Amino acid sequence: MAQAATAPLDRAKELAGGAATVAIVAAVLIVIGAVAGEIDPIIGVFRNREATPDMQGVANVVTAVGVFWLMALPSFLLAGALIDLSKVLDEYGKGQFFTLKASAHVRKAGEGAIWALVFKIVASPTIVSWITHEGRGFIWHMEPFDLGLVAFAAFVMVLGRVLEAAAKIKQENDEIV
Prior knowledge:
Shape: elongated
Helix content: over 70%
């Protein structure tokens, strides 16, 4: 009977351990994809011979590098959120489900995903527009799918806070016993 009861828990630990590895691989692929997808402004400056040895050439290179970082930043932030989730899954793989460490990483993953979306939707397009002198106002690039992701990330963050509170209560109860 005891073995039948622990079988699902053992399977959950195995799945969590494997998922932690997949989360790291996904984070690396996101970073590689972001670099490959957003490197065009930098390449364009050199291809179009806009990188000249005068101040304008330096400004062109700095602008291109700035645009690259601003456009790639949401992907980098999302990769960081996946790394936080991999830490949660790693803890779960060790059978440590209700710990402050795992709960804090759930919260951090949600926060990281929200920051990634804030940069994707508002910050990156707006700052790039300011840098390239295409506009001066705030620019929003939000689709219904993005709104769903914001809600999902917010719920993950709230879930992390709930799990942190539960882990603190568990820790206090363990100290009493």
